[in-house]
Amino acid sequence: DQQVKQNSPSLSVQEGRISILNCDYTNSMFDYFLWYKKYPAEGPTFLISISSIKDKNEDGRFTVFLNKSAKHLSLHIVPSQPGDSAVYFCAAVEYGNKLVFGAGTILRVKS
Amino acid sequence: DTGVSQDPRHKITKRGQNVTFRCDPISEHNRLYWYRQTLGQGPEFLTYFQNEAQLEKSRLLSDRFSAERPKGSFSTLEIQRTEQGDSAMYLCASSHSRLAGTDTQYFGPGTRLTVL
């Protein structure tokens, strides 16, 4: 049973517009979440994280929102750039520091 | 480059052969993790070291898999008697444990294993 779900396999956005990537989780014990970006033939690159004591965290063009009651988080990228085209993974930290990943969302930013 | 490195980047082997992968973490990172990623899925946790101690193993890690981190620096992951189902990307990550809060894991480029 998948504890972290990214229900949109892909997303296509015009350059300059907002990209919104969504993630849902089922385990209410999760209290720390991360987003990673992955290009082909490379390992995942850390983007941004959020603790459950917050509902928002910003870093430049990237903002992560957390809705604990809905067990939902989202990553907003504004403005989107062609170089943002990649696979985005949502991950939750389980006990023992291991990460539980979603299946990923492919983002395509069209110029 | 002071990131996580993995060797080899690609490995093709025949079913039944043994393979070994190496991971060099970021200097002074005391935690090291192995994950496996198959097509269309996110990475799945395999095992985790703090210094040289292997603290946790996933049930995905059958007895054909063994991992070591002998001096608390680099780590090796060995797969014995490989099967076609072992074909995947094997990712290594490292982090530095913090006194409070959650440490961030940084990933290497991965080793892509193909079992024929």
Description:
The complex is a heterodimer of chains A (111) and B (116). Chain A contains no helices and eleven strands. Chain A is mostly beta strands. In chain A, the strands form two sheets. In chain A, strands 2, 4, 5, 9, 10 and 11 form a six-stranded mixed beta sheet that branches. By secondary structure, chain B is mostly beta strands. Chain B is built from no helices and eleven strands. In chain B, a hairpin with a 6-residue loop joins β7 and β8 (75-79). In chain B, the strands form two sheets. In chain B, strands 2, 4, 5, 6, 9, 10 and 11 form a seven-stranded mixed beta sheet that branches. In chain B, strands 1-3-8-7 form a four-stranded antiparallel beta sheet, with no helix packed on it. Chain B has strands at residues 5-7, 10-13, 19-24, 31-37, 44-50, 53-57, 65-68, 75-79, 88-95, 106-107, 111-115. Classes of the chains: A mainly beta (111), B mainly beta (116). Chain A binds chain B through residues 4, 32, 34, 36, 41-46, 49, 51, 89, 91, 93-94, 96-104, and chain B through 4, 6, 31, 33, 35, 40-45, 48, 55-56, 58, 91, 93, 95, 101-110.
